[in-house]
Design a protein that fits this description.
mainly beta; 16-stranded parallel sheet; 26-stranded parallel sheet; single chain
Amino acid sequence: MHIMFGIRAIVPGVFVRSVTMTCPLWLDTASRHGVLALLVCALLFSLQGMVIGEDAAVILVNSNSGQAVPDDGLISLWEAIESANVGGMPAVIRFSPELAGTVIDVSEQLPSVEASDITVDGDIDGDGTPDITIRNRTGEIKDGITVASGSNVTIRGLHIRDFRGGIIVNGDGGNVLIENNHVEVDATTLPIPPISDVDRRGIEPYGVPTGMTIRNNVVTMPARGNYNGLPFPYASWQSGCTFRVGSWGDTEPGDVARNLEITGNTFRNCEIGFDIRRNSCTIEDATIANNIVTGQIGLNTGLTPNANPDETPHTQAMRHVRILQNRMSTTDRHLQIMTRGGQGHELSDILIAENDLQDCRGVSVQDQSSGAVLDIRFEGNVLRNCGDGINVQAAAQNPNPVRIDIAGNEISGGNAGISLLNCKDMVTRDNILEFNTGNGISADNCIGEHRANVIRFNGGHGMSVVGAQRCGIVASIIHENGRCGISSRRTANMTISHCSITKNVREGIYFSGVVNGGILPPSLTGADSSSVSGTVTAPDGSLIEIFSDSEDEGETYLGSAVVAGGSFVFTGFIPTSGHVTATVTHPDGNTSIFSTPLSPSVDVGNWFLH
């Protein structure tokens, strides 16, 4: 048989600890041996302090009082946190099963968790949902659970209501876990704050943490712009999770926040679902995945210079960041990543993949600094009704490569599908861009390749290319767009090859002004079921591509021929039911518009034989 018994330890003025342990009794406790065993067990208990197993003491909260009540024989959450802070050993704060479903009305600010190796666990039955509610009844703007310092801290299974900040982590500690909590801000129950104090943040870590994990939490905010019936600016900044990596002016260039994880959370009605703000330090190895966000802005990240204008801006970086499989339905922006001011910013190895984004402006990357390094991949995202689906704007004065890889995304129902500016090492590939009101792809002053994209049913051009100096459009399907298939201005060395371009409202390929060195299209002189011939002003070695089309574009690529002596002959199967067209590509990479279409002649003798 076993017997449970507890012990309380008191230090002057502060209740420290109440724990339980199991002591085996091999004989009946009424017997002489049983009593001896009980005494031995009590001695072992006292020698071990209040250790459960080998690792941690358990502090059992058995009072729903929101403050410290000395000498009442019970333990409140307030007292449990104070006890863990001064205990000098790992501690787990748990709640008595009798408190499941109850509300702790906090009437004074809870003490901060200040020691290391502390867990606060409100999930009594272990089902992954909160069993304890902590509610602000101080009559003032307060924060809920605050982790002031220390490492290896866990906050789990709490329903935290009506605080300005639900869970605040303030410090540089490592291995902080925040999981399975519900943070709820009900503006109608909070006092009216001063304007400078209106921000609401469900979960807010700041400092330079290492090993921060925020997972499977729910954060619910009130309707934006309404605070106790008052309009904006009250409750004007409502963030589900704000990472303030480093506070303004107090971090050094060598500071690195590592191994950050935000996964499986639900952020409801937030002005910003995630807000990653950092100053003068580096973020490395961060994952934001499998979250659900509704509200105004899904994810906002920024690299900003030091707030003090008298200080030299520090190099800042975000490296090895993964934004994966999130679902966002927000009224303004889904994902925004921005560099602003300063020099030497770096966004490298950033992957934005397999996110499902609906009903707002889409993914925006804006470089407003000078000399930034950008290396960002967008893979397999689905964006519906999202303004400019993927919008990347690099600074024109940036001398560094801007590496952008946009692959396998589905973008529909917005304005421009993909909009790129000043991207110097760029590729778009295998994307589907359809039913957008603007252009399928807009690329201004970009260098790189567009390969195997499907661009159709957009209201503007299939592709608008402006100012490109080396650009390839290869093996893409571009059809039934509201303006041109490809529209180009001020481009040079733009190659168009192996594409299917057809049934666009205006031209298949359109040049405004002198484009691609003023290269002229071929002149077709003859065509039948087995050959196409023509002349061209381009030099020998230029490549002719032959197409068939029902009108004057190039729906089906038939093959190619090489210019020799100012002319060419292509031999191969030629459909005779429509027209043939051709383009020519100069050896330097400049491609022409489509030629005037020509109807192939029909061999009447062969027709009768067949």
